[in-house]
């Protein structure tokens, strides 16, 4: 039973490591998205709107990541407590089941975060496209205004 428990602890530690890696990747992607949004914000008239959006996006991602880190730390503490206290086989099995459930929940949260990041990437691309279209429309309107001014000046002369 103890060997089985030790193996389960090792498996849970490995799962925690995988979750930590995924979490760090999520943080890196969020930071990269923030950087991309900041670059986009510098190039258009919508800079103020985009900067606030970038800030909000980064804050949201950071808070989620901090929560996941806290949950992960809690799981690691629980595993350490299980090691230190020699619980009976039945008690430790119940704890492992609980830990596995928590790990599954964390995995789901990470997956949701990754999906949200993908949605946010798509939203950013849509905003960039819209911004480019607006700039093109503005340039076309300026050309039309200049031609109308020229026509008006010709008519006046």
From TrEMBL:
<dbReference type="GO" id="GO:0051959">
    <property type="term" value="F:dynein light intermediate chain binding"/>
</dbReference>
<keyword id="KW-0175">Coiled coil</keyword>
<protein>
    <submittedName>
        <fullName>DAPLE protein</fullName>
    </submittedName>
</protein>
<dbReference type="GO" id="GO:0031122">
    <property type="term" value="P:cytoplasmic microtubule organization"/>
</dbReference>
<dbReference type="GO" id="GO:0005813">
    <property type="term" value="C:centrosome"/>
</dbReference>
<dbReference type="GO" id="GO:0005737">
    <property type="term" value="C:cytoplasm"/>
</dbReference>
<dbReference type="GO" id="GO:0030705">
    <property type="term" value="P:cytoskeleton-dependent intracellular transport"/>
</dbReference>
<dbReference type="GO" id="GO:0008017">
    <property type="term" value="F:microtubule binding"/>
</dbReference>
<feature type="coiled-coil region">
    <location>
        <begin position="58"/>
        <end position="151"/>
    </location>
</feature>
């Amino acid at each position: 039973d103890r060997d089985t428990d030790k193996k389960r602890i090792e498996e849970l530690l490995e799962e925690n490591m995988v979750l930590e890696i995924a979490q760090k990747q999520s943080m890196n992607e969020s930071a990269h998205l923030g950087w991309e949004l900041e670059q986009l914000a510098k190039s258009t008239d919508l800079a103020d709107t985009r900067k606030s959006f970038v800030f909000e996006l980064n804050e949201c991602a950071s808070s989620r990541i901090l929560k996941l880190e806290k949950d992960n730390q809690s799981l690691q503490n629980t595993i350490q407590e299980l090691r230190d206290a020699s619980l009976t086989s039945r008690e430790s099995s119940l704890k492992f089941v609980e830990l596995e459930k928590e790990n599954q929940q964390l995995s789901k949260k990470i997956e949701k975060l990754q999906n949200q990041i993908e949605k946010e990437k798509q939203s950013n691309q849509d905003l960039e496209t819209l911004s480019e279209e607006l700039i093109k429309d503005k340039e076309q309107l300026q050309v039309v205004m200049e031609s109308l001014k020229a026509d008006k000046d010709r008519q006046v002369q």
